């Protein structure tokens, strides 16, 4: 007998789509089709390809077509919490994309398109809650990236090209099966992101500043004496990189 059919999902018409356009606080046009029970990408929204933001999150989408490239003005694309197993190469043609959330899908490392490394203006990328066992070194080409979510995957290493991205400020890699050697390596340089360290001699400080500094130094020494004597164990066994940010709630990753 014939194959069992999946859920049909809600049919999105052009009228429904037009009524789903919202104006954001900063004046951008957002097409919000989240939580609509959509199972297939609605082709009718290609007629609204001039929107600035597209939210298709929390649906049942398994595929995004290559025609997504028609959304050339798109700055913000949210596809989190679907059933995506792959992304089209054409996603790399969205050159204005600033924010991309593909968290909580079924993406594997082999199905991450090479086109991702073409998103030169991308600042925020969320790949958390997928099935990734490696991260392509080519993501090191995303020089504008400031935040990346890699949590809840099957990663055993993070490429140096990604860890050393020049503008990267936040990297969430919680709950990945990293080997102990990787954890120790990441602990070895606790001040990787310090850009400038200012040192002065005591003689260059005024009396009031010198008094404050000495007081703070004494407090630090007391704290160090207490912590070293009370326990020799690391208190940060789950901290994988200096940039790690424990954001268990994926909603926090939807902040623009």
From TrEMBL:
Q: Which Gene3D superfamilies match?
A: Ribonuclease Inhibitor
Give residue ranges for domain Disease resistance R13L4/SHOC-2-like LRR: 68-201
Its keywords, alphabetically, are:
Leucine-rich repeat, Repeat
Region entry Disordered: which residue ranges?
Answer: 233-256
What GO cellular component entries does it have? cytoplasm
Q: Which Pfam families match?
A: LRR_14
PROSITE patterns assigned: LRR (PS51450)
Q: Does the keyword Transmembrane helix apply?
A: no
The domain of life is Eukaryota
* SUPFAM superfamilies associated with the record: L domain-like
The protein depicted here goes by the name LRC18 protein
Q: Which organism is it from?
A: Rostratula benghalensis (greater painted-snipe)
Q: Gene behind this chain?
A: Lrrc18
């Amino acid at each position: 007998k014939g194959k069992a059919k999946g859920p049909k999902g809600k049919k999105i018409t052009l009228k429904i789509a037009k009524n789903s356009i919202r104006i954001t606080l900063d004046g951008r046009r957002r097409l919000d089709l989240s939580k609509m029970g959509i199972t297939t990408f609605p082709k009718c929204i290609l007629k609204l390809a001039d929107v600035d933001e597209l939210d298709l999150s929390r649906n049942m989408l398994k595929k995004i077509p290559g025609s997504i490239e028609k959304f050339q003005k798109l700055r913000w694309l949210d596809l989190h919490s679907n059933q995506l197993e792959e992304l089209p190469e054409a996603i790399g043609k969205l050159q204005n994309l600033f924010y991309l959330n593909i968290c909580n899908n079924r993406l594997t490392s082999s199905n991450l398109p090479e086109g991702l490394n073409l998103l030169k203006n991308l600042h925020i990328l969320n790949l958390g809650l997928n099935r990734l066992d490696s991260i392509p070194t080519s993501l090191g080409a995303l020089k504008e990236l400031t935040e990346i979510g890699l949590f809840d995957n099957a990663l055993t290493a993070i490429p140096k090209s990604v860890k050393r991205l020049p503008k990267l400020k936040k990297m969430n890699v919680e709950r990945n099966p990293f080997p102990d050697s990787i954890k120790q390596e990441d602990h070895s340089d606790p001040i990787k992101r310090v850009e400038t360290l200012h040192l002065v001699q005591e003689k260059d400080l005024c009396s009031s500043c010198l008094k404050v500094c000495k007081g703070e130094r004494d407090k630090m020494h007391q704290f160090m004496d207490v912590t070293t004597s009370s326990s020799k164990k690391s208190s940060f066994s789950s901290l994988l990189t200096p940039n790690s940010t424990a954001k268990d709630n994926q909603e926090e990753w939807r902040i623009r």
